[in-house]
Amino acid sequence: MSEETEKIDTVNEHEADEKIDPEKGVENGDGDNGEDGEAPPTEGDIQKEVENLKAELEKIKVEQPKEVLPEEKFDLEEFDQSYRENLPKEKLVLAYAENFRRQYVHLYRDRKPLLLNPVNECGVEKFVSTTIRPTQLQFPEVYDWDGASEFVADYLNFEPLNPPTDLPKRLLSSTTVLNRQKGNCFEYSTLLCSLLIGNGYDAYVVSGYATKETCLMDETREICPLLQKKEEAVKEAAKKEVKKYTVKPPKDLTSKFEKMMASRKVAEREAEEAKRRKEEEEKIAEAEKPPPDPLFGLRIHSWVLVLQGKREVAESFFIEPLTGLSVPLDTHQYLGIESLWNHQNYWVNMQDCSDGVKGMKYDLGDCTLWEFMFQSNEKPLLEIPEFHDHDDDDEEEEEDETEKQLDMPPSWVKAIKITLRDFQMRCPQGKKIKLYKKSKLEKFAHYLQKDGLTAKLSVYDDNELKDLVQVKEFFNHRLDKLYMRGYNHRTDWVIEHYYPGRQRCLKEHTYKRSASGPENERTMVFYHEARVDGLLKREETPVEMTEHFKNRDDFLYYRHILFGKRAKKFGPSEGPNHRPIWKIHEKFHRNKDIPANEDIADLVFSIQEEKILLTYHTEDVRVSASTREFIKPPNADEKGATLLMTPDMHTTFQVDPNQSSKKQVELYQMLVDLVRREEKSRNKVRDSEQEVRDILNDRMKEEVASELEISVYDTERNEKAKKHRKELERLQLEEKMRRQDMEIDYLAPFIAQLGDPEKINKETAFRLKEAALTDLKKRLIDKANLIQARFEKETEALQKKQLWFQQHQVNMSPEDEEDYMSYCSEMMFRLNIFEARLNRHRELAPQKYMALEQRIRQDSRLAEFFMNP
Amino acid sequence: MSRLYDTVEPSVIDDDMLHKAVEEQGPKEEAGRIAKAEGIDFADVKSLRLDFKNILKIDNLWCFDSLTKLQLDNNIIEKIEGLDTLTNLIWLDLSFNNIEAIEGLEKLTKLQDLTLYNNRISKIENMDCLPDLQVFSIGNNELDELENVIYLRRFKRLKTLNLNGNPFCKVCVQEENPEDGSEAVYTENQDYRPFIIAYLPSLDYLDYRLIDENTRAAANEKYHLAIEELTHNEEVENKKEEERQAKEKEHNLHKAAYVENMDGPALFHAMYTEDAEGQKLADMPGVDEMLVVYKEKYVATCHQIFEYGLQEHERRMEEVNQFWDCIEEAKRENKEMGMKQINQFMEYKKRLFQELTHLTDQQVLDNKITEYNKRLQELWDKLMGLELQLVDQLEEATKDFERNLSDLVSSFIENCQGHISALRDLENIHHEKLLEISIVTLEKVVKNELDEEIPEDLRLLFVDKDTIINAVSSSHDIHLLKIDNREDDIVTRINQWMSQLMTKIHEEEEVKRNRMRVSEINNLIDHLREEMDTLDLQLGYN
């Protein structure tokens, strides 16, 4: 430790020296200026003088005094009590920490102070561990560490520590940081740690030292992660299996000596090449090395440590919160660790950091390496499992002890909340620009840009970002399925990538921006699985078109077309003026259903030469292929004309000379088919040309419209759904209003009885209440009476019927008897109903009475009189 | 309808008629002109129509080898015959004739469409060899038994069927009355359609009409039980057939391994079937227990042979497959190299010919031509070199293979012989024991001490010592002979297999392939040279 402090001291001195330097320089400059002014200017040298003056003036630079921002003040009212005050337990912890600090300072006088009790936004001291508030957000994107760290890096704007060598005096809560959308490295780490712990990671905030680049989030020396080439999976060439009867290769008759000499030469050249390359690389590396930093080793930084073991983390690693990238434990960018903490405990590093963080051990249970603050939260990490069983008994004892000891109070920070909208905006104002080595990355929130742009990567050839080489734009949610467009400024090539789902299944489109019209150099790649014609790729140049196919039923896999110069037409043009086709070359895969000697492999329609050339597939046992050549009959292009053929129009080479030659009729038939086929192919070519034009037209229209697609589940943005929902809400509101209107003013008749007095005084109020209640009472009783009357009436009728039945029972038919029985049962049923109704009424009546009384009490017009009876 | 023709003189299918028909139905216009000039070969004709010709007998069609469609409708044919050579026939129309029985179709295995409309057929039969039948028309015939149609169930691909106008389709409403001359009146039998639909589930069209789902469902409902029974029976049949096939396959495999019937007591039984004495001797007291033990041991040894045979067979097959794989690979590689050479040359040729058409200077032209010929010679050298290399490689590989295979075979034979001699030993031991028992028994018989009853024919053997010993040893001889035969069988067959295989490899792979390749190369080179010559001539003219 003492070594380190010595180093720091010396560095400080250096710094002090250097601080004076610039002033010296300026003074010198002034002096020079004065001398120059005294020298008499000679004729003709004025030009030179002006140049000189310019150069001198260039030297003088005005350095703006650094604006010292007044510390941001927060309105105390905004915050909860927990922010403004300390609970007794928190106070206890603070005192404990203070005690720890004092002992620490006493024991290790030469060590730097620890970050223990910084003040929060309300100026209240809070212990750092309680500032971590483990939270799980509702967004699945931030469930994993990479998503969470990327989110934190994107969401916040970075404020450097001021001065860079001192610990911050103030540590804001994560909620405030999220509101401001900016923070220093400690606030970044605290927020990220809160999220990671909430998601189950074993994460810690680290306080330590780092390089200047890391502290200032200067990534200009890093290669943009988007540009890093993925390591191509090295495919090991499957070594040819040596089978039992594999034939021996022919004898090698070349001279071994010559070979050796040749290989030696090659090796020499390669070595030279490698040497040169290495030198060059070294040169570049030298040039790119950051300038020496006077504060090297003193710059304070904070980052996050994730330990292995939880959430399937196999190996511990750091996360740099400012960039959101993972950093291996043996990195060069971190120079030392002072302390680290999570929401439960605080550990101070006892290991030597003179060689950076390399070789440090993170066994937090080992108190020779890590001095912990709270006994209770000690957790033996990385311990050999054997100890566990052994420890079991002790633990119980310990538990008793720990109860007496201090444990960590709950976090004073409120739960971290982020709205969906804010989450989707990602960066402050939805935009963020990052600078990398020779490249610039701009990020935009989804739906922020009208054309769906979400990221733009510009690659430059120089470190000053002036010489633009290429631009890559990434899009999301575009209706035309475009997701990536690259433009190379040097070659003028544009490459566009599309998702599947476009009308003509376009996958990639490469063209020159300066010549984007049809019949120019371009390459289109298609989703061939989705296309009926199985088109995979179409390459074009002004005079050529090549199409590649896959999985076609007719085994075609390649078609090459050679165009001629467009004939100049005079006068009014009839129909489209196509380029004349000179040659169509088609290639086919082998069709196993027909013999190889009949299966065309290669078909050339040489339209210019009026010839058709056929090459057949090679049979399995042969090495050469049969060919045929037809000369097209002169009248082949006439429609409906009968083709004429003479034997000299056909020449052939047959691999098997013994095979019986084809009959003239068959050849004639073949020729007719071929002529028809040529016509078809020509039509296909025209179709292809048309398709290219259509695609380009579509693209033009889409580019102008640049519409975005919105998921039906996105209630925020889907205008249609929004409208629909609003409409529903409106209807509901109307319905409610209507119902309110419908509600009868039960007091109205009584007020009317009193002659609609302008103002209701207490007396009238009581009278109103009385009247209303008596009225209700009367009505309730009336209703009960009514039910009773009906009941009695029915009973009477039943009794009468019974009497009648008894009298006439003797001479009654069975049907009549049945009628009577059913009548009786129905009557009884009705009587039961009446009884039930009456009972219910009796039960409900008092409730209704009470309810009315209550309502009158609460009626807006009368309430004042019944408030305090 | 056919009655109409009764009065007309029947005609015979002769050369003239065929020529005329072929010419009429052959290619038209320009193609026709060319064809006529060249002459049409009957063997090339794909389809032939001979309708309304009053043909009585199908004859003289043997030269139409590749015929796929034959129309013989509206004739007075009485018997299906003379079609045996037309094996490629797919479409056969014999409607409107006087045919009385289905026959003579045995060779037409590719037939898909058969029309026998308006004939006098009374029974569907003799069609088992038409597995591809898809369309069958037998309307207006004299089929009177509806059950006969179930015969068509065997055609799994039958889609279209016409049965209209057969007696079973009609129900007699009014009988024929000869007195007032009124004819019988029929209406359609309502039952026959559902019956057919239910029994022939593969049908899509019946009597020109599509069978819709409802009709099919109703029909299935109606004949539900009968159909189920039928399908069950068929399934049982199918299963039996499958089992039989599986067994046959297994047997073939065993046979290929030269150990068929060795997995059971077959050989043991075979020893005793021709051995009358042995059977008699088995009745001797004490022999049957001995026989049981003997059989057990014998069968176990047989089984050893069986297992060993199968195992060896697998090894041999693997060896052979490996060899073929390697040979194929070598040939493929060689072919690829050859093709590469040829393609390179073809590219060169294409460029050169294009160049030559533009050249006018005779000197340059000659130079180019000489260079072409030189390069052609080089190509020949290269191709021949490749071929020679391949021949060498194959020869070596074949030699290796032959050595290994003969090792395998001889070790198999040796081991087999070892096992078989074990069998022989068993037999010898058995023989000795039997001899002992028989002598003891003889003594008992002589002394009349024998307790058990023995059969009369066995008693006859116990006349004297010689007789019984003779009987026992003759039984023994027969047994040994059987075992020897089996051994010989195995040895000869495996040797034969190997020599056949090796001859085939030598002939096919070495000699024949080499000759073909050499002739191919020469042919190609000649052609290329010729091409240059013709071009040269043309240029010379210019």
UniProtKB/TrEMBL annotation, chain A:
Residues 1-46, 268-290, 387-406 are annotated as: Disordered. Residues 301-373 form the CEP76/DRC7 peptidase-like domain. Residues 29-38, 391-402 have a biased composition (Acidic residues). Residues 428-711 form the Dynein regulatory complex subunit 7 MORN domain. Keywords: Cell projection, Cilium, Coiled coil, Cytoplasm, Cytoskeleton, Differentiation, Flagellum, Spermatogenesis. InterPro entries: CEPT76/DRC7_peptidase-like_dom, DRC7/lobo, DRC7_C, MORN_DRC7, Papain-like_cys_pep_sf. Pfam families: CEPT76_peptidase, DRC7_C, MORN_DRC7. SUPFAM superfamilies: Cysteine proteinases. Residues 1-27 have a biased composition (Basic and acidic residues). The keyword Transmembrane helix does not apply. Residues 758-865 form the Dynein regulatory complex subunit 7 C-terminal domain. Belongs to the DRC7 family. This is Dynein regulatory complex subunit 7.
From TrEMBL, chain B:
Keywords: Cell projection, Cilium, Coiled coil, Cytoplasm, Cytoskeleton, Flagellum, Leucine-rich repeat, Repeat. One of its GO terms (cellular component) is cilium. InterPro entries: Cilia_flagella_integrity, Leu-rich_rpt, Leu-rich_rpt_4, LRR_dom_sf. It is found in: Cytoplasm, Cytoskeleton, Flagellum axoneme. Transmembrane segments: none annotated. SMART domains: LRR_SD22. Its main location: cytoplasm. The keyword Nucleus does not apply. The keyword Cytoplasm applies. PANTHER family: DYNEIN REGULATORY COMPLEX SUBUNIT 3 (PTHR45973:SF12), PROTEIN PHOSPHATASE 1 REGULATORY SUBUNIT SDS22-RELATED (PTHR45973). Belongs to the DRC3 family. This is Dynein regulatory complex subunit 3. It comes from Lingula anatina (Brachiopod).
